[in-house]
Design brief:
The protein is of the alpha+beta class. It has three helices and seven strands; from the N terminus they run αββββαβββα. The chain has helices at 4-13, 54-62, 128-143, and strands at residues 18-23, 29-34, 37-41, 44-50, 64-71, 74-86, 96-108. The chain has a seven-stranded antiparallel β-sheet, with helices on both faces. The two termini are 21 Å apart.
C-alpha cells in the first residue's frame, strides 16, 4: 500500500513526476518519465499517457506496469496490473488514454545510508497557460 503521507503529497501537488516501467509480450522493457499520475486510493494509481505510446501499447498487451515514486525519504517501487479505463479523453485534441494500476506490491527501495531529499524537480518549459489547461483536463479525467 502507498503510505498516507505519500498519497497526501501526490494529491496536493497535482503533477507528480514518476518513472513508469512496462514491457511488451516478448519481455522487452520500456521506461518513461510521466507526470499525469493520481493516487485513487492506497492500492490504486491512475495515470494518463499518449494513446499511441509504447507504454500504452505494452499495458494493453501485458497488463503489467511498475512505477517508481520519489518523495521525502521515500523511493517506492509499485507493481501492479494495468487496466484501460478510458481509451481517449474526449476534451483533448490529441489521443490520451487513462489507465488504472491495481497495486499488488509496494516496497521502499532506498539503500542503507541513503535518502531522497524531496520530490523530483519538474516544470513546464513551454506555454504555461496551455499546459495548465491541459493538465486540469487530464487530472479531472484521472480523478473521475
Amino acid at each position: 500500500m502507498i503510505p498516507s503521507n505519500v498519497l497526501e503529497i501526490m494529491r496536493k501537488v497535482g503533477l507528480f513526476p514518476v518513472v513508469l516501467a512496462t514491457s511488451d509480450k516478448e519481455g522487452k522493457p520500456h521506461i518513461t518519465f510521466i507526470t499525469w499520475v493520481y493516487p485513487f486510493d492506497e492500492k490504486t494509481i491512475r495515470l494518463a499517457v499518449s494513446s499511441n505510446s509504447r507504454s500504452a501499447k505494452n499495458m494493453l498487451e501485458t497488463r503489467k506496469a511498475s512505477l517508481m515514486l520519489f518523495a521525502q525519504d521515500t523511493a517506492l517501487a509499485c507493481y501492479g496490473e494495468a487496466t484501460l479505463l478510458k481509451e481517449n479523453i474526449e476534451e483533448l485534441k490529441f489521443p490520451v488514454s487513462v489507465f488504472q494500476i491495481n497495486l499488488s506490491g509496494v516496497e521502499n527501495n532506498l539503500f542503507p545510508g541513503g535518502t531522497v531529499t524531496g520530490a523530483i524537480p519538474f516544470m513546464h518549459t513551454g506555454d504555461w497557460e496551455k499546459a495548465g489547461e491541459l493538465n486540469m483536463i487530464v487530472l479531472d479525467a484521472l480523478k473521475a
